[in-house]
Write a structure and sequence with these properties.
This protein is of the alpha/beta class. The chain has a 6-stranded parallel beta sheet with strand order 2-3-1-4-5-6, with helices on both faces. α3 packs across α8. The relative contact order is 0.13.
Amino acid sequence: MRSGVSVGTSATDWVASLSPWPQEFGLDRMRELLARLGDPQTAYPAIHVVGTNGKSTATRTIAALLRAEGLRVGAYTSPHVSGWHERLDCDPATFERAVARVRGSAEPLGATQFEVLTAAALAEFAEAGVDVAVVEAGLGGRLDATNVVDAEVVLLTNIALEHTEVLGDTIEEIAKEKLAVAHAARVVVISDNTLRSLVPSTTRIVPGGAREAAEAFLGSPIETEVDEVTLPGRLEHRDGELWDGAHTPEAVDWLLERLPERERVLCVSILADKRVDELLERLAHAGRTLVATQSSNPRALPADELAARAERYFDHVEAIADPHEALARARALGGPVLVTGSLYLLADLHS
């Protein structure tokens, strides 16, 4: 077996063992996997959420609004923080069954982790008989494994420079890659009017965010107010600490606006393909002490390298590779703690 995990292993452990990064991007294997599963993505309409920041919160908000209107809604987000089941908005037992359902078809194809998770979500939604699925894209859009749904409504949350080696070097190139999921959309909801020219000419453009996307799907206003949607690792308050997976400079700017105090001890891990120095420069506005660590993601910067790059921005920097030990050290240094830089770090600390 490619993953080296035995047949008797739980489906959750199996999917955790798979490669999260494809050797090359493309949809052929994903389409073949879904075909073997009976193309479950055709059993319901979909709303597709793309963008750089805020996709998971937007996805869950749309789902909450539509559930308040009496619809059965499936929601798929990534990555997770509290556990794998978070991605399918379900309990661990349901997640285990969902992955087990697709394992026999996925394994012979050598499907990647994200392909398996996406197929599991789409098949689970069909099994549950949802009225609509709200699907968050992973990386980009055009070649993302989620671009197998013919979404009626697409929400573009925002655009920042990210994954430039795959998506392009400019905001316009990245936006074009993400908006490629609008191939079947009747409505595209955007918050940035400067990107209107990149939306297919046959598609109606609606300014706004999650609520407008939900209303566009329904075709009518939603008067219901839902509780503020919260997700682990997104402005999460934990016993006096703040955990937030801000991984772009723009996300850090958003976070800084919401910090009740600006002299925190930071526990930070950053992926090597992120805009590391821009992130560190902005994070220094949250506090002058940083404990650099390294998440379990293979793309994470080594703690020593992150610490070396952080020294020009912070008064005091330490490097501790193990995330749990790094957090313990940050707590010992005194003052309120901010854990940030990567959702993968937060997931490691939740486990």
